[in-house]
Structure formats: structure tokens, C-alpha cells
Amino acid sequence: MPDRPLKTEVQIDPAIQAVEVKITARVEDEDLVLGLLKDRDAEPEERTVYFFDTPELALFDVGLVLRARKVKGDADDTTVKIRPVDPARIPIDWMKTAGFEVEMDRVGDKQIISAKLTAEQDAGEIDEAVVGERPLRKLFSLDQERLVAEFGPKEVGWEALKPMGPIAVQKWKIDPRKLGHEVVVERWKLPDKSDLVELSIKVEPGEATVAADAFLAFLEAMGLEVSGDQQTKTRGALMFFTTGQGFD
């Protein structure tokens, strides 16, 4: 294994509440990851995910993502996410809004700052919105609607948005002693049966660089290849529902 160059901790905006380090497993490494989870007798949390956008991805193209998530055995939720963002340019009233979070994603060599607002949904509300029995905007809270109005394209109305899903998601959490951080593994499966497996850790901003190096070293010790291009879950899923091209 080649030595990894030493890194120094970068200055992170104090508004950032957490850093999530993500690695997408290569297709040829997916069975290794899933096999390790099976060996640990880890049981996944089952989820179903939908996105909402125009067929041309008018929201995604300006950095706005609308997501609904059904969670088996737990509360369903919706999320409005904007990325990239400059924390210094986010109005202070948003920073004080309950549920509003600013995070940094480290995916490969890229660092992206995002902001999101999540709200719980009652059982059945997501299904009603997906089949058109409930107005889509009523699936999101008033604060989420306000966030969409402030950061979304003015020319795109709620009636132009279409549901993109379902995406079957399995989520595992493991706590390797050697790493010292909880590892989250997510497997996203599209309707064409193609899938994507992502491994991640979430850490405090001040320990991001050290934790990221330790995480990559841990994955390499497992036999995973951690270099190369990284495919993100959201982009890959939206590409499928607009072009028909799956994850693999």
C-alpha cells in the first residue's frame, strides 16, 4: 500500500455542525462489504426513498434536492437540501430554525458544504403525495416551503415536480473497535435492480482530517479500493429516473 501524504487540518467554518466522510464501494467490492455485514450479524434498517424534481432536473441543477423517506418501524420524513452553500451567506434566521443543519460532505477529494431542513411526516402521507392524492407541497412543512421559495428557481412551481422512485434502501450501523467511529453502510437499489453501496462516518469538524485518514486506512485494511471516481447516491438515482441509466 502506498504511503498516504500527510495532511494538515483545514480551517472549517464554525457554522458547520458535522463532517460526513463518504466512500462508494466499487461494483466488484460490494459483495465484500455485504459479506462483512453478514458476518457481523448486522440487521439493516429498511427505507424507501423518493425524490421530487422536474424531468429536466430543474431543481437539482441549481443545487436543490427534495426528498421523502419512508422508514420501516420509525417515523417517515421529508428533507429539503441545498448545496453547495456558503455558510457566511445563509441568513441568521435560518441558522436559528429548528431542524436546520449545515454539514460538509467529503467525497473522495471533494468537499461540499450543504444545508438541510428535515421534518417528520405522518404514516401514509408520502404514499398519498406520490400517487397524487395529496398536494406535493403539503408534504413539506411551512419552513421547508419557505426554504424552497428562497433558494429554488422562481419559474418552477410545485405542480411541475414529479415523484422519482421508489428506491429501496438498506442501512446498517457498525462500530468497529479499531476505528473508533460508527460506520454507516447504505445500499441503494433502483427499480432496474442496479445498486450502489456507500460507507460513511460522521464526525466533529475539528477531527475531520484525522478521522478521514483513519477511515480510509480502515477500509483499505478490509480490502476495499478507496481511490478513483466516486458516484453519489442522489445524482445516480436522479440520472436513472431521467435517463434510464442505472448505478452500475
Query: What does the radius of gyration come to?
Result: 18 Å
| CATH-assigned fold name | Hypothetical Protein Pfu-838710-001
Neighbour order of strands in the largest sheet: 1-5-6-4-3-2-7-8-9
Relative helix content: 10-25%
What share of residues are in beta strands? Answer: 25-35%
Can you tell me about this structure?
By secondary structure, the protein is of the alpha+beta class. The protein has a single domain, classed as Hypothetical Protein Pfu-838710-001 (Beta Barrel). Helix content is 23%, strand content 32%. It contains six helices and nine strands; from the N terminus they run E-H-E-E-E-H-E-E-H-H-E-E-E-H-H. It has helices spanning 30-39, 92-95, 125-130, 142-151, 208-222, 233-243, and strands at 18-24, 45-53, 64-71, 76-82, 100-107, 110-121, 162-174, 183-189, 195-203. It is globular and about 50 Å long. The chain starts with 17 loop residues before the first strand and ends in a 5-residue tail after the last helix.
Features:
globular; Hypothetical Protein Pfu-838710-001; disordered N terminus; 6 helices
Q: Can you summarize this structure?
A:
With 248 residues, this protein is an alpha+beta fold. The protein has helices spanning 30-39, 92-95, 125-130, 142-151, 208-222, 233-243, and strands at 18-24, 45-53, 64-71, 76-82, 100-107, 110-121, 162-174, 183-189, 195-203.
